[in-house]
Every structure is written in C-alpha cells, then in structure tokens.
Design a protein that fits this description.
This protein is of the alpha/beta class. It contains 15 helices and six strands. The protein has a six-stranded mixed sheet with strand order 2-3-1-4-5-6.
Length: about 300
C-alpha cells in the first residue's frame, strides 16, 4: 500500500513527556500497538524496534528514557548509544513517549542532545489536566503501588504542595534547549470526538488516521471508587501498624495485587466517607489560594 505522506528529507523528533496521570500509559500502548501503521502510512516512527532492547518488550514508557535517565529502575538496561544515534540519523518524524524524559535535569538533557545528535527540528509535548484531578489521581496511584498510605490531604500537603510549580516552569528547560513546546489539555482531548491518541496525532501532525486500520487499546491504570481506595488505605495502615511483618517484604507488584483484589470487593459496599469529602474540599480550597497553575493561555509556546 502506498504511503500517505511526502518523502521526508529532514529529521524531526517529538518527545511526549507527560504530565503523569494524563492517560500516558494508554497513549504509549496505543502508539506501540499501531507503530507499523503510523510508520508505513503516515511517516511517524515510534522506534518500536528499539523497545525490545530493554529487559522487557515494553509497550508503555519508551525504554530509551529508562536507559538514559533512570539507571535505578527495575527495567533499566543500557542501550548502545551508537545504535540510537544511527537510528536517529534516518530522515523522518520520530515520536517517543515517556514521563521519564521529564525527570531529567537540564544538564542531563543537554548531554543527551549531543550524544544522540538530536535534530534541530525538535519539540516536546506536555499534556496537563485539571490540577485537583491530577493530585487525586497521583494520590490514588501512590496507594496502589504501595508508595505511601497518606490521606488525600496529607499527600497534598507533604508530597505535592512543597514541589508545586506552574506549567511554564515545567517546560522551561525544554525551551532553553531549543525545543518547541506543544501543550495540550487532557480534559479537552478526553472530550474530543476522536480516540485521545488519534486526537493528539491530528494536532501534532495534521493527519487523520484511518480508524478502520487503527488498533484500539484498553484504558490503563483506571482507579476504583475513591471511597473504596481510602478504606483500603486505612486497612493497610492498620495492618502495617499491628502486623508489620505481614507487609514488610511486599514488592510494588504485591501491593498492586492486594490493592486490586481488596478494592474490587470494597467497591461493591454502599460506602460513604464524610471525612474524605471534607479533605477533598480542603484541598480544593487551598489550591484556590495558590498562584495560578496554568500561567499562560496559548496552546503552543516556544
């Protein structure tokens, strides 16, 4: 079948770097599942062949981000820089997706720019969502993975607020390194007529992917009802207090399994939690007192 794009004579790269909890894993799974279609029909290269160079054939975060910026991660495995550099020299549109790119410091990114010989035509995509929803979703994820068992308000005050920064600060390091910056709203993408990933591709490249050829993927990391998760959090907190040996050696995966099983049961109970409702209201009120998170109006800045 003939491709639907002009033969490219230049190199370009787009990095989708988050924010976390904006359907990133679902987007990454969709890009991976449709990598051959995107490359053959639309000239967009997700570099699927490089995904297999990690210790798992990852369909989520692109392994290049692990290999470059997260040596302590369980999926870390060095990837030959010469191979990456040669891969990126091929003319075309490269698109990579991982929140781990956003974890890199300006110095690390500067070194990577030279090491990978990234093209001057480069941009970064950041997707943001309603700030309260972002905080709550991050809190739910932290509990599921066993990273903390704080209440929502405790999580906000201890884990989020001290490091809170506006969108302009999150994209500054990219702009300083010569990246064009594309910013999109998760809430607008979610309510669009298209599948979210298709909508992103349309906005980035001005293409309309044939939906008959597109492979749909299930949404990832969908949280149970918040009241059920909060009760699960309280139960685990009691277990850790009175029977610490029971969970002392649990891995992230074991917390994940316990969370899914217990919350599936708790979700069927007619639960109400006034204390949780009060905490939501307190966090929302405090956010209203903070400097504006969305500190620019344009959808795209450079």
């Amino acid at each position: 079948m003939e491709t639907n794009f002009d033969v490219l004579t230049q190199r370009a790269i787009t990095l989708h770097v988050g924010l976390p909890k904006t359907a990133t894993t679902t987007i990454q799974n969709a890009l991976f599942a449709n990598a051959e279609l995107l490359k053959s029909h639309y000239g967009i290269d997700y570099c699927k062949d490089l995904c297999g160079l990690a210790d798992v054939n990852c369909t989520g975060h692109h392994p290049l981000a692990w290999a470059e910026f997260l040596p302590t991660h369980s999926h870390f495995k060095p990837i030959d820089t010469a191979l990456v550099k040669a891969r990126f020299k091929v003319p075309g549109n490269i698109l990579l997706s991982s929140e781990w790119f956003s974890m890199a410091t300006t110095k690390q990114l500067s070194i990577t720019l030279e090491k990978w010989d990234l093209p001057s035509d480069r941009r970064v995509l950041l997707i943001y969502r309603n700030e309260f929803d972002h905080i709550r979703s991050s809190w739910l994820q932290a509990i599921k993975m066993g990273l903390c068992f704080l209440s929502l308000q405790e999580y906000y005050l201890q884990r989020y607020k001290p490091w809170r920064s506006p969108i302009s600060m999150k994209v500054k390091k990219w702009a300083d390194l010569g990246f064009a910056v594309e910013v999109m709203s998760f809430d607008e993408l979610k309510t669009a007529e298209n599948d979210m990933t298709l909508e992103i591709l349309n906005k980035l490249y001005g293409i309309k992917v044939d939906k008959k050829l597109w492979v749909n993927v299930e949404a990832s990391n969908v949280s149970p009802p918040r009241v059920a998760v909060n009760l699960y959090r309280k139960l685990i907190t009691l277990v850790k207090r009175f029977y610490p040996s029971l969970t002392s050696n649990w891995s992230e995966a074991e917390y994940h399994v316990a969370h899914d099983k217990l919350c599936r049961v708790l979700a069927w109970l007619p639960l109400k939690d006034r204390r949780y409702d009060e905490e939501e209201a307190n966090v929302r009120h405090d956010l209203e007192m903070q400097p504006h998170f969305y500190d620019y109006q344009k959808d795209s800045v450079k």
